[in-house]
Write a structure and sequence with these properties.
By secondary structure, the chain is of the alpha+beta class. Strands 2, 3, 8, 11, 16, 25 and 26 form a 7-stranded mixed β-sheet that branches. The chain has 3 domains: 105 residues, no CATH class; 334 residues, DD-peptidase/beta-lactamase superfamily (Beta-lactamase); 110 residues, 2-Layer Sandwich (Trypsin Inhibitor V, Chain A), CATH 3.30.10.20.
Length: 721
C-alpha cells in the first residue's frame, strides 16, 4: 500500500513538473502572447467625416454627436435589524435615492415634451408613463433606456435640469452613451443627391456625393495601443510608458479627420425646385419625377430634386434610385431638338425647308410604318423647321427623316450619337442603378420613331446636358455636383470639364436657340411665355405602349432667352397630363426664382410696354425693404412720414411709391402682401402667435384684419407665390 502511495506521489509530482516545464518553456511564448493580448489591445478612434456644404455656404450634411438617454433611478429602502423594510404610515421609507424627488418630478413633463419634439411619433404621455412607472417601483432599474440617439444639445439640456443631474447616465457597461451619426441639416432637401448610407448582404456604402467623394470625406481612423489597468479601464500605452520606460513602443496611426467639400447645390434653388415639383406631382399625379437646374457656362448643377411615390402615396427622395441620374425613359418631343440638330449638322436641310405637319389619309412612308398621327390638328398643312418644332409635329419630323435619311439611316444614327451623350457620363454622384442609353433602328417604325424621340432611351441628366450645350453655343459641359475640396485652409477647385467642344457650330446653336424660343412664344410652350426675361425650350410627352393614358411629361430649356445663363429640365413620369401642363409650369416657377435671386439679372430694370417695372412687396419692414432695393440697384424712398416713424411701409399703387404704415392698436394688422418674415415679426410684436402654410406672400389670414386682438391667440397665414 505504501509503495502504491509513493508511486502515486512520484507520478503526480512528475506530471506537475512536466506541466510546469511545458507551460514555461515549451508553450511559454504562446501563453506570454495570450497574456499580452489580454493586457494590451489596439483600439480604433474613428475619424470625423468631412462636412458637405452648399454653394451658398449652408451645411448640407455633417457628423453630429448623439446620446442614448439612460436614467439611473436607483433607490434603496430602509431596513430594520432583521433586514425587513421600514414602513411608516403605510409607505416604505427610503434610505437613499439618486434623484431629488420634488425637482425630478417637477421637470418630468418638460423632459417628455423635449423628447416628443425630437421624436414626434412617440407622445408625451408615452415617455411620461414609461419613466414614472419605473420610478415608482420599489427597486427601479439602475439603467433605464428611455430613447436612443437623442441629439447632444437636447440630451445635455435634460442632464442639466434640476433634479436630473445625477440620474442621467453618462457611461454604461457597453461604454460611452455618446456616438456620432451623419445628419442632413435640411432634412430630405436634396437628400438623394447629397447621399445616404446603405447596407445590403453584398455591399455597404453611400450614395450621392457621400459615395463618390467617400475617400475624401471619411479621413483616416486613429489606432491606439492601450494597456488594461482594472475594471475595464484602458490607458493609452504612451501614457503608461511615461512611468514604465522599458515597455516596447508601438507605432500608432494618428487620426486624420476627413476633408470637407463644397457642392454646387444652392439651397435656395433646391428648395424651390423640390417644392414646385412636389406641388405639380400632388396635383397631376405621377410616380416619379425630377427637376434639374444647371449653370450653362460651367455645367455646375445648382439644384437636383428626385421624388418617388411610395406605396402609401407619399413623395420622398428614394435611397435606391436617383431619377435625375439613373432613370432611362423615351424622351418624346424633347428629342426632336437632338434629331434636328444632327440634320442641320449634316447640311442636308435648311431652315426654310418646308414639311407637312398633319397626317394624310393613307399609309405614307412604308408598308410597315403606317400612318403617323400628329394629334394636334393644326389648320396649316406645311411649315418650315421652326414651325415643325414649335408645333411639335411628329409628322413633320417623319417627313424630314423619310426624305433625307431613308436610304442612309446609319448616318442619322451616327449623327445623333456624335452629339448626344448616350454613354455613361460618370457624374460625381454615386448611384446604385446605372445603364447606358440605346438607339434602336431595327425597322421602318423604329427609324421614324427615332426622329421624334420614341426609339431612344436617355436619362434626364443626359438630356439637360445636351440642351446645355445648345445654350452654350455648341460647347457641351460635363454636369458637376462639387465645386471645391476643403483641407483646412487649403481649397482645391474642381474645374469645369468639357465633354464635347463642338456638338454643332455656333451658328447652328444660335438657330436652334431661336427655334426653341419660338416654341415658348408661339408653340406648345406658350403657357409659360413671358416678356420679362424670355425662355427657350421644348415640351415632351410620351405615351405608354399598353395604357396610352399613362404619360411621361417633360419640359427642358434655358433662360434668359437672349444670353442663356441657366438650363433646366423637369420630368414627371407615369402621369396623365401632357408636358405643357405638368412640367412647363414647374420650369417657370424655378426660372422666376432664379432670376429674382441672381443679382446680375435682378439689378436690370425691366421694361414692360415702355414703363419701368420694379419688384414690389405690398407691405414690409422699412429697413429690410431698403436693403433689398439696394441689392437690386433700385431707388427706394418712403414719403408721407409719420411722427414718430413706425418702421413699416406700405406700397401705394396709385402714387407708385411707399408710404409709412400706421401700426393699428388693439386690432389684428393687415398682413396681405407681406413676406412671412415681416408678417411674423409684426404679429409677434403684438403678442400674437403665427402659423402658416405655403410659400411666397400672404394672400389670406385668419382672424381677419381689424378684428379685436386676443393676447396669445394664433393667426393663420396662407402664402402663395
Amino acid at each position: 500500500m505504501l509503495v502504491l502511495w509513493l508511486l502515486l506521489v512520484v507520478v503526480g509530482g512528475g506530471a506537475m513538473l512536466w506541466s510546469t516545464i511545458k507551460t514555461q518553456v515549451v508553450d511559454g511564448d504562446m501563453w506570454r502572447e495570450k497574456a499580452k493580448a489580454r493586457e494590451f489591445t489596439e483600439r480604433i478612434e474613428p475619424a470625423r467625416r468631412g462636412t458637405i456644404f452648399s454653394s451658398d455656404g449652408k451645411v448640407l450634411a455633417t457628423t453630429v454627436p448623439v446620446c442614448d438617454l439612460c436614467l439611473d433611478l436607483g433607490r434603496w429602502p430602509k431596513k430594520d435589524s432583521k433586514g425587513a423594510p421600514v414602513v411608516k404610515n403605510g409607505v416604505v421609507e427610503m434610505e437613499s435615492c439618486i434623484t431629488n424627488d420634488s425637482a425630478f418630478l417637477a421637470n418630468l413633463v418638460h423632459v417628455c415634451k423635449i423628447l416628443h419634439e425630437q421624436f414626434p411619433h412617440k407622445s408625451v404621455a408615452y415617455y411620461h408613463d414609461r419613466i414614472l412607472n419605473e420610478y415608482k417601483k420599489q427597486r427601479p432599474v439602475r439603467c433605464l433606456y428611455v430613447e436612443h440617439r437623442v441629439p447632444y444639445s437636447q440630451w445635455s439640456a435634460i442632464r442639466n435640469m434640476k433634479g436630473w443631474e445625477r440620474c442621467v447616465v453618462t457611461k454604461t457597461a457597453d461604454g460611452s452613451v455618446t456616438s456620432y451619426v451623419r445628419a442632413h441639416i435640411y432634412g430630405n432637401l436634396g437628400e438623394n443627391t447629397i447621399g445616404l448610407h446603405f447596407k445590403t448582404p453584398k455591399q455597404e456604402g453611400y450614395t450621392g456625393l457621400e459615395g463618390y467623394y467617400d475617400t475624401v470625406l471619411r479621413g483616416q481612423d486613429g489606432i491606439y495601443k492601450c494597456r488594461r489597468l482594472t475594471r475595464g479601464i484602458w490607458l493609452p500605452e504612451e501614457e503608461v510608458e511615461e512611468y514604465i520606460p522599458d515597455l516596447d513602443s508601438t507605432l500608432m496611426q494618428r487620426r486624420v479627420d476627413g476633408k470637407s467639400i463644397i457642392s454646387t447645390l444652392d439651397t435656395r434653388y433646391q428648395d424651390i425646385a423640390e417644392s414646385a415639383l412636389r406641388k405639380s406631382m400632388n396635383q397631376y399625379g405621377g410616380q416619379r419625377g425630377c427637376a434639374i437646374l444647371m449653370e450653362v457656362s460651367t455645367g455646375y448643377v445648382l439644384a437636383c430634386s428626385s421624388l418617388t411615390r411610395d406605396t402609401s402615396g407619399r413623395l420622398s427622395e428614394n435611397l435606391w434610385s436617383n431619377v435625375a441620374v439613373s432613370d432611362h425613359y423615351e424622351p418624346g418631343s424633347t428629342f426632336k431638338t437632338v434629331a434636328m440638330t444632327a440634320m442641320l449638322n449634316d447640311k442636308k436641310i435648311a431652315l426654310d425647308t418646308t414639311k407637312r405637319v398633319r397626317a394624310g389619309g393613307k399609309k405614307r412612308f412604308s408598308s410597315t410604318s403606317g400612318e403617323i398621327n400628329d394629334g394636334h390638328g393644326y389648320a396649316t398643312d406645311t411649315t418650315n423647321l421652326a414651325g415643325v418644332l414649335a408645333k411639335s409635329s411628329n409628322v413633320g419630323m417623319c417627313e424630314l427623316a423619310w426624305e433625307y435619311y431613308r436610304t442612309r439611316r446609319e448616318d442619322l444614327k451616327k449623327g445623333i450619337q456624335s452629339i448626344f451623350p448616350f454613354g455613361k457620363m460618370h457624374p460625381d454622384v454615386e448611384v446604385l442603378e446605372t445603364n447606358t442609353g440605346i438607339v434602336n433602328l431595327n425597322s421602318d417604325r423604329d427609324f421614324l420613331n427615332l426622329s421624334y424621340g420614341y426609339s431612344a432611351t436617355v436619362t434626364p441628366l443626359q438630356l439637360i446636358t445636351f440642351y446645355n450645350g445648345i445654350a452654350n453655343g455648341g460647347r457641351m459641359m460635363k454636369p458637376l455636383f462639387c465645386r471645391e475640396v476643403l483641407d483646412g485652409r487649403r481649397r482645391s477647385e474642381i474645374k469645369p470639364v468639357v465633354l464635347n467642344e463642338h456638338i454643332c457650330s455656333e451658328e447652328t446653336a444660335k438657330q436652334m436657340r431661336e427655334m426653341l424660343v419660338g416654341v415658348v412664344e408661339n408653340g406648345t410652350g406658350n403657357n409659360i411665355y413671358n416678356t420679362i426675361y424670355g425662355i427657350g425650350g421644348k415640351t415632351g410627352t410620351t405615351q405608354g405602349i399598353v395604357d396610352k393614358s399613362i404619360k411621361n411629361s417633360s419640359f427642358v430649356g434655358f433662360f434668359p432667352a437672349d444670353n442663356p445663363r441657366y438650363t433646366c429640365l423637369v420630368l414627371v413620369e407615369r402621369t396623365s397630363i401632357a408636358g405643357r401642363q405638368a412640367a412647363a409650369p414647374v420650369f417657370k416657377q424655378i426660372a422666376d426664382c432664379v432670376v429674382a435671386f441672381d443679382s446680375e439679372l435682378g439689378s436690370v430694370r425691366l421694361q414692360d410696354s415702355g414703363r419701368v417695372v420694379h419688384p414690389v412687396i405690398a407691405k414690409g419692414n422699412e429697413n429690410q425693404l431698403t436693403k433689398a432695393y439696394q441689392l437690386l440697384g433700385l431707388p427706394f424712398s418712403v414719403i408721407d412720414t409719420l411722427q414718430p416713424p413706425t418702421g413699416w411701409a406700405v406700397f401705394d399703387n396709385e402714387q407708385d411709391c411707399y408710404k409709412h404704415y400706421a401700426m393699428p392698436r388693439g386690432i389684428v394688422p393687415n398682413c396681405y402682401g407681406m413676406t412671412i418674415r415681416d408678417a411674423m415679426k409684426l404679429l409677434r410684436e403684438m403678442g400674437l402667435k403665427v402659423r402658416f402654410t405655403g410659400q411666397g406672400k400672404v394672400v389670406n389670414q385668419n382672424p381677419k384684419a381689424r378684428t379685436q386682438i386676443v393676447k396669445g391667440s394664433t393667426v393663420m397665414l396662407e402664402l402663395k407665390p
